[in-house]
């Protein structure tokens, strides 16, 4: 049974797709155009009553919320592909902790100079905490790659790309090395190669 993912091009669905690639799970994508409001049609709301992407359909099973979906696949296929969960209960706890912490929420996206400056300062402080953590441990949740980073990939990509805030990453040595490590994974490169963000779409920053 091939997993269906709605829709490939936006940030939250990309978390799911990179997870499926890491786990070696076959999938197909169903386009949903946010600009045309296709996520608010009665048909789509039957799948995701809140009108957000992503949703997956796995046979008769439907699931939404990107982090719930990646947890689901990491558990369901624990021994297939990359293990994204850790082996001990403590490792698992740390993965969950860093899965919940997303620095994107610190960055306001309104085109207001004052808000942008304040948000950047806030984000800088969060990244300082990442820097401190990463100076002691290769990855945030320990020495192994995990679910926590899948969830960071799409937004950090926006940050260093369209938002032109790469300096926030590069001026922190350990954060910079961490970003190079996770963004150079073949799974993420594949996602970027396959699914381009539509030029019309302005990232809403909703996590
Ligand atoms: N917490 C949700 C957030 C989903 C979300 O914000 N998705 C965005 C695309 S990345 C969306 O559907 N936005 C549509 C809108 O804001 O109307 C998740 O992680 O799945």
In short:
The chain has 207 residues and is α+β, with helices and mostly antiparallel strands. Helix content is 50%, strand content 8%.
Quaternary arrangement of the chains shown? Answer: single chain
Number of strands: 4
Q: How far from one another are the termini?
A: 29 Å
Overall morphology: globular
Keywords: Cytoplasm, Detoxification, Transferase
Enzyme class: transferase
Protein name: glutathione transferase
Pfam families: GST_C, GST_N
Describe this protein's structure.
Residues 1-81 form the GST N-terminal domain. This is glutathione transferase. It comes from Erythroxylum novogranatense. It is an enzyme of class 2 (transferase). Its EC number is 2.5.1.18. By secondary structure, this protein is an alpha+beta fold. The chain is 50% helix and 8% strand. The chain has nine helices and four strands. It has helices at residues 11-23, 42-47, 66-76, 89-100, 113-134, 147-160, 166-170, 173-183, 186-194; strands at 3-6, 27-30, 55-58, 61-64. It has a four-stranded mixed β-sheet with strand order 2-1-3-4, with helices on one face. Strand 1, helix 1 (11-23) and strand 2 form a beta-alpha-beta unit. Helix 1 packs parallel to helix 3 (66-76), helix 1 (11-23) crosses helix 6 (147-160) and helix 1 crosses helix 9. The radius of gyration is 17 Å and the shape is globular. The model is unreliable at 202-207 (pLDDT under 50). The chain binds glutathione.
